[in-house]
Structure formats: structure tokens, C-alpha cells
Amino acid sequence: MRTAILISGRGSNMTALLEAARQPAYPAQIVLVMSNRPDAAGLARAAEAGFATAVVDHKAYPDRASFEAAMQTELDRHGVELVCLAGFMRVLTPWFIERWTGRLLNIHPSLLPAFRGLHTHERALEEGVKLHGCTVHFVVPELDAGPIVAQGAVPVLAGDTPDSLGGRVLAVEHRLYPLAVALVASGRARLVDGRVLEHDVAG
Ligand code: GRF
């Protein structure tokens, strides 16, 4: 499935997806890495690795509608069928999200529905939860509220700081996102009537 990765920053999840997609049997083919920030570290890394890249700088557009229309043009130009948000830091409008229903994934650094939004590791430590983790979900207009495709959990350890906990979660993100993208790209997990249906294509 022709897949785009949308980033805004360092792109470590992007790198994990690019690595996974090197396997010939992997069901997603990364045809575009797109960033809203020209200086995103991940963009340079993707270009160096030989992937097609695009910048759609949100600051160059007067409003969200024209910014998203420009992103949509790039996605169309590359024949993209599946979009993976990987540290993409712009809130998307219902216009864009509904256009991509069932074909737009995000990775979020918490066990949703706990800790939607930002600063998830700080908040997990403040709440004193003993399990934390990450979630890959289909994107819906409500922020971090979409149907869940996969989750990975880590323990919260005594003495954890947001950085130590975040690092433990990030290592799991790098395994989880490629697995979840493979589930969706192969059709083993899909969005039907607002719920994730899973089936084993081999079974
Ligand atoms: C990750 O923690 C991801 O869960 C969140 O943003 C961060 C992006 O990190 N959505 P990276 O750019 O993939 O390194």
C-alpha cells in the first residue's frame, strides 16, 4: 500500500517505519515523507536514505484550509493510500481527516484513553500510574480519541523521570508502529463503522 509519513521533528518513528518497509514482504511502501517544518531533522534523514520528501510549511499559508489543501495535493501527486502521522505537530481539520477516514494513523505516547494531548510522560508520573505506554490509532476529528489499532505497555519504575520513562516508551513505539502499519496496510485491521475490525488473512 502506497504510504506517506508526516513528521514535524526528529523522526525516530519515521526511521523505524522506513527500516521496516525495507523488508520486501512488508505491506506498506513508503512513497513520501512530508514535513510541515523545513528544518525537521527527520526530513534530511529520509532524503539521505533516498526517499521522496516534501515540505508544506504551514507558515506559508494564510489558514489551515489552504495548508491542508497543499498537503492533499502532495499526497495525490504521489498516489498515497495510507497516511501515518509520526510526531506531526499540527492539529488537522475535519475536512482533511474525513477525507482520509480509515487510512490515517497516529502514534501517541500514552495508553489511550489515558493522557490525551501533550506532556504525557510528566502527567503519567504525576498521576502515579504503574503502567504507561503508547497507542497507534485511526485519526478522528476529536484529538487522540480515534479507534485503537495497537498498544504497547511499559512499567513505570521508581525514580523515573519524564525522560527515562519517555525513552522506555519510545523504544516500544519503534516496534509498535511498524507492526500496526503492517496490520492496516495488509487489511488485517480496518476501520468499519467507527470500530477496528481485525481478521487473520491467512486464517
Ligand atoms: C513520539 O513520542 C510520538 O508518540 C509522538 O511524538 C513523538 C515523535 O517522536 N506523537 P519522533 O519524531 O518519531 O522521534
Brief digest:
This protein has 203 residues and is of the alpha/beta class. It has six helices and nine strands; from the N terminus they run βαβαβαβαβαββαββ. It is 34% helix and 24% strand.
Explain what the structure shows.
By secondary structure, this protein is of the alpha/beta class. It has two domains: 1-100, Formyl transferase, N-terminal domain (Rossmann fold), CATH 3.40.50; 107-203, 3-Layer(aba) Sandwich (Rossmann fold), CATH 3.40.50.170. The protein is built from six helices and nine strands; from the N terminus they run βαβαβαβαβαββαββ. The chain has helices at 12-21, 41-48, 64-77, 94-99, 120-127, 162-185; strands at residues 2-7, 29-35, 53-55, 82-85, 104-108, 131-138, 148-155, 189-192, 195-198. The strands form two sheets. A seven-stranded mixed sheet has the order 3-2-1-4-5-6-7, with helices on both faces. Helix 1 (12-21) links the parallel strand 1 and strand 2 (29-35). Helix 1 (12-21) packs parallel to helix 6 (162-185). The protein starts with a strand and ends in a 5-residue tail after the last strand. The mean pLDDT is 97. The structure holds 5-O-phosphono-beta-D-ribofuranosylamine. Residues 7, 9-14, 86-87, 107-109, 134, 170, 173 line the site of 5-O-phosphono-beta-D-ribofuranosylamine.
Secondary-structure blueprint:
Elements: E1 2-7, H1 12-21, E2 29-35, H2 41-48, E3 53-55, H3 64-77, E4 82-85, H4 94-99, E5 104-108, H5 120-127, E6 131-138, E7 148-155, H6 162-185, E8 189-192, E9 195-198
Helix pairs in contact: 1-6
Bound molecules: 5-O-phosphono-beta-D-ribofuranosylamine.
